[in-house]
Amino acid sequence: MTAFARSAPFPAVTMASVAWAVAIAIFILLRVGVVWRAPVGGAELDHLSGAWQASNGVEDSRYVSTLYQAVTALTLGWTESETPARALALAGTLTIPLALLLLRRALGEGGALLTLLLLALDPAGIAIGATATAAAWDAAIAVWLVAALVAGRPPPWAWLPIAFLAATAGPLTLPVIAGAVVVAAMRGQRPAREAVLWGALGAALGLLLASLQFGLGAEGLRIPSLHLLAVGFGEPWSGATVAQLAALYGLPLLVGGAGAGVWLIARLRRERRAPAPAEALALGMAGVAAIWFLVAMPSHSPLPLAAATLAFSFLLGPALARLADRLLDARWGEGRWLLAAALALAGIAAFALSGLAHAGGSGGNAEQALFAASLTLAAAAVAALASGRETAPLAFLPALAAGGALLVAGASGVALSAGGEPLPGPVSPASARDIRDVALEASASGGSVVVHERYREALTWPFRDSGDVVLASHAPPPGAAVLIWPIDEPAPEGFTALEGRWALERAIRGPAGFLGYVRWLTERNSLGEELELVAIYVRAP
Amino acid sequence: MSGVAEAFAFWGVAVVIAALALPLAFRLFRRFPDGGAGLAFTLGLTLIAAGYFLLRVAGTLPAGRGGLLLAIALFALVMVVFAARDRRFPATLRRSLPGIAAAAALFSALFFGYAFFRAHTPDIAHTEQPMDFLYLNAMLVSPDYPPHDPWFAGERASYYYGGYLQAAVLTGASDVWPATGYNLSLAAVFASAGTAAASLCAALARWLFGRRARRWVALAAAGGVAALLFAGPLASVFELAAAHGADHQGVYEAFGVEGLVRCGPNPQGPCTGQPLAAAATWYPEDHWAWWRMSRMSYWGPQPGYTDVITEVPAFSFLLGDLHPHVMAIPGALLALALSAAIWRGRGVLSWREHRRRPWMLAAVALVFGSLAFVNTWDVMPLSLALGAAVIARNLRAGAALPAISGAASWLIPPALLAVAAWSPWIAGLSTSSVEGLYAYSGAGTRIRHAALLWGASVAFVLPALVWAFRRRLRLEAGPLAIAAAAPVLPFLLWLALVAAERTAGVFSEGGGFGTAFGARGTEGWLTLGFFAVALWLLAAATLALARRAHPAAPLAGIAALAMLLLYGAELLFIRDALFFVPRHNTVFKLSYQAWLLISVASPIALVAAFRFAAPRARPLLAVPVVILLGGSLVFAVTMTPNRAGGFTEPVSLDGLHYVGFYHPDEYALIRWLAANVEPEAVVAEASGRVWRMGDEGKAVLEDRGGYGSFGRVGVRTGLQTPIGWPGHERTWRGKDVSPEIDRRRDRVDRVYTASSRDEALAALGELGAAYVVVGREERERYRDGLIPPFGAFLETVFAEGDVRVFRVPVLEVVATR
Fold first, then answer.
1. pLDDT-based confidence at B655, cuts 50/70/90?
2. How far is B73 from chain A (nearest CA, A)?
């Protein structure tokens, strides 16, 4: 170290620290806005409703008693807003970069950094980690579990809080736990006795509190992660299916992660070595998450996708870091023209495809020919790059560019304009709260607010803190001042409808077909919406 | 999903479960040639269903497909850890690969073959199939566990429903429509039973013949599959002959099957047989011809009414009732295989062994506990087999007393664990329908009928065993004397019960020695004597072989156990709710188990006889074998096309296909209820009684009903209804429940015959019913416009054709704070 360096007033700034700072900043910025801007929808709508009911002391199957949901119920005890709960979700999620900093040795500096970047840009992670779903803290707990398992040896007592958090977490932690169990069994590892005892104590405490629903009442042996995973197969926690969500938001991480996993296994076989602890755990958790994701593809929940993208990031991040090293060593001079040609041709193909998509697939032959020719030539250029030993790494760049673009588009869509995205969905729009305000106002002079029984669950969140509401299936019950009624039911006698378009729920339809998907990528607000419209009737004067 | 896609999904789940169970199968059945792969289908399903049940009872798993998938996933995790910690797993896997491939191929062939057959006769429509479907749906729909009884709203199921739970695991996890899942569950039982039989027979044969005798082993395995799934009573030969006009009355009388003589539509002169015409096809054509083989009373005149069921698996699979005794076949074979594997293992077993291998303790507890859960009748005989296996193993290492005490200390912990694990189910069982053990004082089974039912298999097993092991089976006084206890002790028990006048026969109850001895006819005594001698000889052979640790010992032991069951059923019976036909259930259940056991023993004994016979003696041996074998296969070969309508009917796997065809509105009703009604809700449907409008304008009871097409909402959806088949509820819950049954029926009838809105609402309130169904059943049972205008005071939530569903209006105040 020079005398100048010793006497410098600021610490030396390395490229790595700048990169970490940028990645952390992206991680934070993409989530902060969600806390205030995103509409309540999908799993969050369900879980906030459950937490609201729990805060009222009402048994409701939507309250699954993860630690986070219990905390949410606590916050809803003194505020009706979702924002404090979301802020707490964000606070937990923002510890993820810290955990990844601890994982630098295990994943490599570049690997940890790129894993953080992938997690930062993961649309499903953004949607869940910054909103008040019961699984809001899951990603953070999962990453800290990874850190605890591979980044060092926490003191035995530390397993008490770790196990407590895992026992009271949602299902995103399960791939890590299952992966760790499998890896430990395969490697013949036995944890230290003291750590097991502390861990068992923490888990027992967590399960006890979860089973008591954190004070709401005993519900048998409740393991929130298992419960949420299981009910996720049947609950409408997303308007789109897992498969559709994956196609819209998860392709880069899923395809890249799967490729990275295959690459890792091939490398391990070629090098005839056992996987490092981090590699083994990443493979284990990715395997478990992939099975969950595949089995859950027809169901309507963002959680399987979030679990898969989280786990796959731990494969893809280190793989990208390794690829980056190869790129640095590659002969750019030899491949630069081919690479430029490939990127240019891919760009032309994308442009032509976009034109076709905007024309609704009815573009001219010339456009179709242009797309086919440019795509074929781009593929040929990539193949030529891949055929050269020294230029092969460059062949990944077009795919990386495409994946990166998709990831950024998805992340920015969910983070910055979630109201227009299929994730989350269906949402409780602002008009839902307006319905409640109008109804309360209309009933202020006497009489009750009556909501059709069909909306029993949908009314919980928008009608929170509205006093007593009557649920009825027959109109009009005695004493009714206002009716919130399905529009397909006949108008009740003695009531007049309030003018307006009153939507209790709103869902953004996913794009139809491949060209619709392409169009959506280039024109984000091109999707149609579905509204659950209701009529508001007030007693005629 | 289409039927084919559903079949593949269902098969896929079954195969995945089997693959997941391989690590444990390898540990339990290491000495089996296939590493237990053929038993893995049953092992996996048994353990997953047990785990699912316990986790549901604990409240850990929710209802729905997710809970089922999670149970499979947790099992997978345990198995992966199990495999990872088994150092011999890779080697066992490599060694067992041919066996695994063979098991998978056999399972697939049997599964799809049976599904093809069933697709030609898919209806869930007759016998006790509605009840079976009811329980399958209850397992799938019940919001909490132990599952509710859809025919007795508010109460838990009181029956051995473990098999339905296993069927529900496959149906729910594969997301198959339950009515299709019913038929595919039958296919899975058929396939896993065949695969388990092949695995067990292959193992027993391998131990007998050695590693090099692969063809003999394969032959024994194939024989096991054929004997279990396709063999039937020899009486079928007479039925086939009669269908083609060869039914000489004298010959038929000589064999005691004059009841099978065809008398034509207008019989001339005395004819004891069936008023049916001869067949125009190669197989008997008349409706339900295969039914006659399940009851000896159809074969020929019986001394009194002795309509005991003498069903065999081939009949069960033709009939298609998804009944406990059918679903228990794979589990019983698994338990038998586990007993054989334990016998084959090394080292003395005592409680200390459980500390070393706790997984074995859990496996034994869950496998044998599941036996009771699936078909309680199976647990006692197969526990006897397990106990004998453990004692025999311990005897190889030491004296009798320590061997027995060690065995007891080894057996007690899994027994206690099993009782503890299934205590939530046991607590829900009604014991008032079982009145204990009685001495049978009827005529007994005619020897000719016994020969026609058991002849083929018994003819194989006894002589073949004697022939194959003639050098080992020196008549030693010790084993012969000890073995004599096997027939003598049950007979002494019979005498004691007779002395206590705890006897019953055909239309008779009580009576002393005179009645008991006199009632049994000559043929009955001959049958009893034959079974006694066979039991004695086989028990002696078992002892003699076991003393030498000879690999034929389990074979003889299995055959001896079968004879004990047949012998026991001729002497004693358990008096239960089906007492209107004495020993009805006892003969049915015990002879079914005996068939299962002999299906394992007889093909191996037969192959052994060939294997150890001099080459020039084999053709001589082949003649009777081919005749008997051919005769025993006549039933399955000729009755399969009969049952499948010549394979000319339209193909569907949906068990409610016929409902959709004949009554599309009723089918739509079921779909609607399944999709829209919350599982906790109570749905009112017809009580089963028939009412008409009386002269005074009041409802008059016309028919009390008891068993029929009513109760279909509970059956087809698993939703709770106030009351279903009353006779069955009495069977399950005991006769003390009769007043409650009547009370419920009265209330349901009040709903459908109410003369005012208030009366109907009051009755609905007493039933706790939120929905009322008015469909075909209701219109047929509440006639002359008795049904009130529900639409005027209830909400009409479903309307299709003539079918309506009404809902009690909701009106409640919810506090939003």
1. very high
2. 9
Tokens of A98: 């810290």
Residue numbers in B near A226 (CB within 8 A) = 60-61, 70, 74
Q: By C-alpha distance, which of B531, B547, B549 is closest to B482?
A: B547
**Which pLDDT score, from 0 to 100, does residue B303 have?**
46
Minimal CA–CA distance to B284: which of B227, B230, B246?
A: B246
Instruction: Please give the Cα distance from A346 to A349 (Å, whole number).
Output: 5
User: Could you report how far apart the first and last alpha carbons of chain A are, in Å?
Assistant: 88
Per-residue 3-state assignment (H helix, E strand, C coil) for B760-800? HHHHHHHHCCCEEEECHHHHHHECCCCCCCHHHCCEEEEEE
* Burial of residue A441, with CB atoms counted within 10 A of its CB: 0-12 exposed, 13-18 middle, 19 or more buried: exposed
Task: Specify which of A443-452, A479-488, B668-677 reaches the highest per-range mean pLDDT.
Answer: B668-677
Structure tokens at B255: 């064999």
CA distances from B129 to B167, B521, B667 (A): 14, 36, 17
Longest dimension (CA), chain B: 94
Secondary structure (DSSP) of A253-317: HHHHHHHHHHHHHHHHHHHT-PPPHHHHHHHHHHHHHHHHHHHTTTS--SHHHHHHHHHHHHHHH
Q: How far apart are CA B778 and CA B769, in angstroms?
A: 16
- Measured in degrees and rounded to the nearest 5, phi and psi for residue A264 equal -65, -45
Q: What pTM was computed for the model? A: 0.93
> B423 falls in which pLDDT band (50, 70, 90)?
very high
pLDDT digits (tens, 9 = 90+) for A100-112: 999 999 999 999 9
Q: Summarize pLDDT for A449-495 with one digit per residue, the tens.
A: 999 999 999 999 999 999 999 999 887 888 899 999 999 888 888 89
Is the Cβ pair A471, B812 closer than 8 Å?
Answer: yes
pLDDT at residue B304, as a whole number:
45
DSSP letter string, A420-447:
GSSSS-SB--HHHHHHHHHHHHHTTTSS
Pull the structure tokens for residue A36.
Answer: 């205030």
User: How far apart are the C-alpha atoms of B814 and B797, rounded to whole Å?
Assistant: 23
What's A146-191 look like in SS3? HHHHHCCCCCHHHHHHHHHHHHCCCHHHHHHHHHHHHHHHHHCCCC
Counting Cβ atoms within 10 Å, is residue B414 exposed (0-12), middle (13-18) or buried (19+)?
buried
* Chain B residues interacting with chain A (CB cutoff of 8 angstroms): 55, 58-62, 64-67, 69-70, 73-74, 77, 80-81, 84-85, 175, 795, 807, 809-817
Reading the block at residue B488, the tokens are 């003598």
- Assign residue A65 a region: left if phi > 0, alpha if psi is -120 to 50, beta otherwise? left
Angle formed at CA B208 by CA B203 and CA B209, multiple of 5 degrees: 100
Residue B413 · residue B488 · CB < 8 Å: no
Q: How far is CA B83 from CA A187, B77, B205, B366, in A?
A: 12, 10, 27, 19
CA distance B707 to B503: 29
Peptide linkage before A398 cis (omega within 30 of 0): no
Which uninterrupted H or E stretch holds A501?
none
Residue from the list A56, A178, A469 with its beta carbon closest to the beta carbon of B77: A178
Q: Which of A299, A467, A473 sits opposite B810 (nearest CB)?
A: A473
Pairing between strand B683-684 and B690-693? unpaired
Taking an 8 Å Cβ-Cβ cutoff, which residues of chain A contact chain B? 55-56, 58, 178, 181-182, 185-186, 188, 211, 219-223, 226-227, 229-234, 291-292, 295, 298-299, 448, 453, 459-460, 463-474, 477
Q: Which helix (H) or strand (E) holds B574?
A: strand B572-575
Angle of the A174-187 helix axis to the B65-84 helix axis, nearest 10: 20
